[in-house]
Amino acid sequence: MGFPEPIDGQTVRTKPPYRPSAHRPIHQMLVNIMADRKSETMSTMAVVRLNPSSHRRTIENRRQRRRFIFGLAASLASLSTATQSNAQDAAIPAFRSGRFQFTILRPLLSVPSVRLFRLDGKTIDLSSLRGRPVLLNFWASWCEACRTELPILDHMLGDRRYADVQIIAVSEDRAGRAVVDQFVTKYRIQSLPIYLDPNGYVAFSDPENRRKAPFALYGMPITYAIAASGWIVGYMPGAADWASAEGERLIDFLRHS
Protein backbone atom coordinates (compact mmCIF):
# COMPACT_ATOMS: atom_id res chain seq x y z
CA MET A 1 0.00 0.00 0.00
CA GLY A 2 1.51 3.36 -1.00
CA PHE A 3 0.32 6.86 -0.28
CA PRO A 4 0.05 9.75 -2.74
CA GLU A 5 2.79 12.36 -2.50
CA PRO A 6 1.46 15.14 -0.23
CA ILE A 7 1.88 18.87 -0.20
CA ASP A 8 2.65 20.01 3.34
CA GLY A 9 -0.42 21.30 5.10
CA GLN A 10 -2.83 20.33 2.34
CA THR A 11 -5.40 17.59 1.98
CA VAL A 12 -4.31 14.74 -0.28
CA ARG A 13 -7.02 13.37 -2.52
CA THR A 14 -7.20 10.99 -5.41
CA LYS A 15 -10.33 10.10 -7.31
CA PRO A 16 -12.12 7.16 -5.63
CA PRO A 17 -13.64 4.37 -7.72
CA TYR A 18 -17.22 4.71 -8.93
CA ARG A 19 -19.56 2.60 -6.83
CA PRO A 20 -23.20 2.16 -7.96
CA SER A 21 -24.38 1.76 -4.37
CA ALA A 22 -23.01 5.20 -3.54
CA HIS A 23 -24.73 6.85 -6.51
CA ARG A 24 -27.93 4.81 -6.82
CA PRO A 25 -30.04 7.42 -8.70
CA ILE A 26 -27.35 7.92 -11.34
CA HIS A 27 -26.76 4.19 -11.62
CA GLN A 28 -30.48 3.58 -12.12
CA MET A 29 -30.52 6.19 -14.91
CA LEU A 30 -27.83 4.25 -16.77
CA VAL A 31 -29.65 0.93 -16.22
CA ASN A 32 -32.83 2.43 -17.69
CA ILE A 33 -30.96 3.67 -20.77
CA MET A 34 -29.54 0.21 -21.44
CA ALA A 35 -32.96 -1.39 -20.95
CA ASP A 36 -34.49 1.00 -23.52
CA ARG A 37 -32.03 -0.08 -26.21
CA LYS A 38 -33.78 -3.41 -26.73
CA SER A 39 -37.15 -1.80 -27.42
CA GLU A 40 -35.48 0.80 -29.67
CA THR A 41 -33.97 -1.96 -31.79
CA MET A 42 -37.41 -3.45 -32.45
CA SER A 43 -38.87 -0.10 -33.47
CA THR A 44 -36.00 0.80 -35.81
CA MET A 45 -36.50 -2.46 -37.73
CA ALA A 46 -39.89 -1.18 -38.86
CA VAL A 47 -38.49 2.25 -39.77
CA VAL A 48 -35.72 0.91 -41.97
CA ARG A 49 -38.22 -1.10 -44.07
CA LEU A 50 -40.21 2.06 -44.79
CA ASN A 51 -37.52 4.75 -45.22
CA PRO A 52 -33.75 4.05 -45.00
CA SER A 53 -32.75 7.75 -44.79
CA SER A 54 -35.21 8.36 -41.97
CA HIS A 55 -33.76 5.34 -40.22
CA ARG A 56 -30.23 6.80 -40.38
CA ARG A 57 -31.42 10.12 -38.93
CA THR A 58 -33.25 8.30 -36.15
CA ILE A 59 -30.18 6.25 -35.26
CA GLU A 60 -27.94 9.35 -35.20
CA ASN A 61 -30.40 11.28 -33.03
CA ARG A 62 -30.55 8.42 -30.55
CA ARG A 63 -26.76 8.17 -30.45
CA GLN A 64 -26.46 11.87 -29.74
CA ARG A 65 -29.07 11.60 -27.00
CA ARG A 66 -27.26 8.66 -25.39
CA ARG A 67 -23.91 10.48 -25.54
CA PHE A 68 -25.46 13.50 -23.85
CA ILE A 69 -27.12 11.44 -21.11
CA PHE A 70 -24.00 9.38 -20.42
CA GLY A 71 -21.90 12.55 -20.25
CA LEU A 72 -24.42 14.16 -17.89
CA ALA A 73 -24.49 11.05 -15.69
CA ALA A 74 -20.68 10.96 -15.49
CA SER A 75 -20.56 14.64 -14.53
CA LEU A 76 -23.18 14.13 -11.82
CA ALA A 77 -21.32 11.10 -10.46
CA SER A 78 -18.07 13.06 -10.28
CA LEU A 79 -19.81 15.99 -8.57
CA SER A 80 -21.48 13.64 -6.07
CA THR A 81 -18.16 11.97 -5.23
CA ALA A 82 -16.43 15.32 -4.70
CA THR A 83 -19.30 16.55 -2.52
CA GLN A 84 -19.19 13.45 -0.33
CA SER A 85 -15.39 13.69 0.01
CA ASN A 86 -15.57 17.38 0.95
CA ALA A 87 -18.28 16.65 3.53
CA GLN A 88 -16.15 13.92 5.10
CA ASP A 89 -13.07 16.15 5.19
CA ALA A 90 -15.06 18.97 6.80
CA ALA A 91 -16.03 16.64 9.65
CA ILE A 92 -12.38 15.94 10.54
CA PRO A 93 -11.22 18.42 13.18
CA ALA A 94 -8.27 20.64 12.29
CA PHE A 95 -5.11 19.93 14.27
CA ARG A 96 -2.10 22.23 14.24
CA SER A 97 0.96 21.97 16.43
CA GLY A 98 3.90 24.31 15.98
CA ARG A 99 4.51 24.82 12.26
CA PHE A 100 2.83 21.57 11.25
CA GLN A 101 -0.77 20.58 10.67
CA PHE A 102 -2.65 17.31 10.28
CA THR A 103 -2.88 16.08 6.69
CA ILE A 104 -5.89 14.07 5.52
CA LEU A 105 -5.26 11.11 3.24
CA ARG A 106 -7.56 10.39 0.29
CA PRO A 107 -8.68 7.89 -0.76
CA LEU A 108 -9.20 6.25 2.62
CA LEU A 109 -7.01 3.20 3.12
CA SER A 110 -7.64 0.36 5.53
CA VAL A 111 -5.00 -0.44 8.12
CA PRO A 112 -2.80 -3.24 6.70
CA SER A 113 -2.04 -6.60 8.24
CA VAL A 114 1.59 -6.09 9.24
CA ARG A 115 3.45 -7.69 12.14
CA LEU A 116 5.25 -5.39 14.56
CA PHE A 117 8.16 -6.62 16.71
CA ARG A 118 8.36 -5.15 20.18
CA LEU A 119 11.53 -4.18 22.03
CA ASP A 120 10.77 -6.79 24.73
CA GLY A 121 10.36 -9.54 22.12
CA LYS A 122 6.57 -9.62 21.86
CA THR A 123 4.79 -9.23 18.51
CA ILE A 124 1.45 -7.88 17.38
CA ASP A 125 -0.48 -7.64 14.11
CA LEU A 126 -1.45 -4.02 13.47
CA SER A 127 -4.81 -4.97 11.95
CA SER A 128 -5.80 -6.72 15.20
CA LEU A 129 -6.15 -3.33 16.89
CA ARG A 130 -9.37 -2.46 15.06
CA GLY A 131 -12.12 -1.33 17.37
CA ARG A 132 -9.97 1.28 19.13
CA PRO A 133 -8.37 4.47 17.81
CA VAL A 134 -4.64 4.14 17.13
CA LEU A 135 -1.82 6.67 17.07
CA LEU A 136 1.00 4.99 15.14
CA ASN A 137 4.19 6.95 15.73
CA PHE A 138 7.45 6.53 13.82
CA TRP A 139 10.61 7.89 15.44
CA ALA A 140 14.40 7.47 15.71
CA SER A 141 16.97 8.02 18.45
CA TRP A 142 18.89 10.55 16.31
CA CYS A 143 15.74 12.66 15.83
CA GLU A 144 15.79 15.74 18.07
CA ALA A 145 12.03 16.33 17.86
CA CYS A 146 11.41 12.72 18.92
CA ARG A 147 13.01 13.47 22.27
CA THR A 148 10.17 15.93 22.86
CA GLU A 149 7.27 13.91 21.47
CA LEU A 150 7.91 10.43 22.90
CA PRO A 151 7.69 11.56 26.56
CA ILE A 152 4.36 13.28 25.70
CA LEU A 153 2.99 10.05 24.19
CA ASP A 154 4.31 8.07 27.16
CA HIS A 155 2.55 10.42 29.58
CA MET A 156 -0.73 10.12 27.67
CA LEU A 157 -0.88 6.39 28.35
CA GLY A 158 -1.03 7.15 32.06
CA ASP A 159 -3.96 9.53 31.58
CA ARG A 160 -7.40 7.97 31.98
CA ARG A 161 -8.77 10.20 29.21
CA TYR A 162 -6.83 8.09 26.72
CA ALA A 163 -7.48 4.67 28.25
CA ASP A 164 -9.19 3.49 25.05
CA VAL A 165 -6.46 4.80 22.70
CA GLN A 166 -3.74 2.53 21.36
CA ILE A 167 -0.46 4.46 21.16
CA ILE A 168 2.39 2.65 19.42
CA ALA A 169 5.91 3.96 18.79
CA VAL A 170 7.97 2.27 16.06
CA SER A 171 11.71 2.95 15.99
CA GLU A 172 13.29 3.40 12.56
CA ASP A 173 16.83 3.09 13.95
CA ARG A 174 19.11 0.93 11.80
CA ALA A 175 21.81 0.58 14.47
CA GLY A 176 20.09 -2.16 16.43
CA ARG A 177 18.15 -2.93 19.58
CA ALA A 178 20.83 -1.62 22.01
CA VAL A 179 20.59 1.96 20.69
CA VAL A 180 16.81 1.99 21.08
CA ASP A 181 17.04 0.50 24.58
CA GLN A 182 19.51 3.22 25.64
CA PHE A 183 17.19 5.95 24.35
CA VAL A 184 14.17 4.51 26.21
CA THR A 185 16.17 4.31 29.43
CA LYS A 186 17.65 7.81 29.10
CA TYR A 187 14.28 9.50 28.52
CA ARG A 188 12.43 7.30 31.02
CA ILE A 189 9.88 5.92 28.59
CA GLN A 190 7.95 3.55 30.85
CA SER A 191 4.42 2.98 29.52
CA LEU A 192 4.77 3.53 25.77
CA PRO A 193 5.14 0.24 23.84
CA ILE A 194 8.26 0.45 21.66
CA TYR A 195 8.51 -1.53 18.43
CA LEU A 196 11.41 -2.01 16.02
CA ASP A 197 11.61 -1.61 12.25
CA PRO A 198 15.37 -1.74 11.56
CA ASN A 199 14.99 -3.04 8.00
CA GLY A 200 12.19 -0.74 6.85
CA TYR A 201 9.45 -3.30 6.34
CA VAL A 202 6.81 -1.14 8.07
CA ALA A 203 7.75 2.37 6.95
CA PHE A 204 9.74 3.69 3.99
CA SER A 205 11.58 6.85 3.02
CA ASP A 206 13.15 5.72 -0.26
CA PRO A 207 11.24 6.85 -3.39
CA GLU A 208 11.19 3.31 -4.83
CA ASN A 209 9.84 1.74 -1.61
CA ARG A 210 11.86 -1.37 -2.42
CA ARG A 211 10.51 -3.34 0.53
CA LYS A 212 6.88 -2.40 -0.21
CA ALA A 213 6.38 -0.96 3.28
CA PRO A 214 2.83 0.31 3.94
CA PHE A 215 3.62 3.65 5.64
CA ALA A 216 5.49 6.60 4.13
CA LEU A 217 7.91 8.65 6.21
CA TYR A 218 7.21 12.22 5.09
CA GLY A 219 9.20 13.46 8.09
CA MET A 220 10.52 12.38 11.46
CA PRO A 221 8.76 11.97 13.76
CA ILE A 222 5.45 11.28 12.04
CA THR A 223 2.23 9.91 13.54
CA TYR A 224 -0.54 8.20 11.58
CA ALA A 225 -4.06 8.55 12.98
CA ILE A 226 -6.14 5.38 12.55
CA ALA A 227 -9.86 5.40 13.28
CA ALA A 228 -11.54 2.73 15.38
CA SER A 229 -13.13 1.43 12.16
CA GLY A 230 -9.65 0.62 10.82
CA TRP A 231 -9.37 3.46 8.29
CA ILE A 232 -6.15 5.48 8.12
CA VAL A 233 -7.47 9.03 8.36
CA GLY A 234 -4.21 10.94 7.94
CA TYR A 235 -0.88 11.83 9.47
CA MET A 236 0.79 14.48 11.61
CA PRO A 237 4.46 15.30 10.95
CA GLY A 238 6.77 16.73 13.58
CA ALA A 239 6.54 16.73 17.36
CA ALA A 240 2.84 17.23 18.07
CA ASP A 241 1.04 17.95 21.32
CA TRP A 242 -1.70 15.33 21.12
CA ALA A 243 -2.85 16.30 24.62
CA SER A 244 -3.83 19.78 23.38
CA ALA A 245 -7.48 20.74 22.84
CA GLU A 246 -7.19 20.27 19.06
CA GLY A 247 -5.41 16.95 19.51
CA GLU A 248 -8.16 15.72 21.85
CA ARG A 249 -10.87 16.68 19.34
CA LEU A 250 -9.12 14.70 16.61
CA ILE A 251 -8.73 11.67 18.88
CA ASP A 252 -12.43 11.87 19.77
CA PHE A 253 -13.19 11.89 16.03
CA LEU A 254 -11.13 8.69 15.65
CA ARG A 255 -13.16 7.05 18.42
CA HIS A 256 -16.43 7.52 16.55
CA SER A 257 -15.24 6.93 12.96
Descriptive account of the structure:
- The structure is a single chain.
- The protein has 257 residues and is of the alpha/beta class.
- It folds into two domains: 20-88; 92-255, 3-Layer(aba) Sandwich (Glutaredoxin), CATH 3.40.30.
- Helix content is 39%, strand content 19%.
- It is built from five helices and twelve strands.
- The strands form three sheets. An eight-stranded mixed beta sheet has the order 3-12-11-6-7-8-4-5, covered by helices on one side. It has a two-stranded antiparallel ribbon with strand order 1-2.
- The longest helix has 40 residues, at 52-91.
- The protein is elongated, with a radius of gyration of 26 Å.
- The two termini are 21 Å apart.
Question: What's the arrangement of secondary structure elements?
Answer:
Layout: H1 24-50, H2 52-91, E1 96-97, E2 100-101, E3 103-110, E4 115-118, E5 123-125, E6 134-139, H3 146-156, E7 166-171, H4 177-186, E8 194-196, E9 203-204, E10 215-216, E11 222-226, E12 231-237, H5 245-255
Helix pairs in contact: 1-2
What labels describe this entry?
alpha/beta; Glutaredoxin; elongated; about 260 residues; eight-stranded mixed beta sheet; 2 domains; two-stranded antiparallel ribbon
What is the gist of this entry?
The protein has 257 residues and is of the alpha/beta class. It contains five helices and twelve strands.
Low-confidence runs of at least 5 consecutive residues: 7-23, 74-87
The run of helices and strands is HHEEEEEEHEHEEEEEH
Tally of alpha and pi helices: 5
Strand content: 15-25%
Number of domains: 2
Q: Return Rg in Å.
A: 26 Å
End-to-end distance, in Å?
21 Å
Number of strands: 12
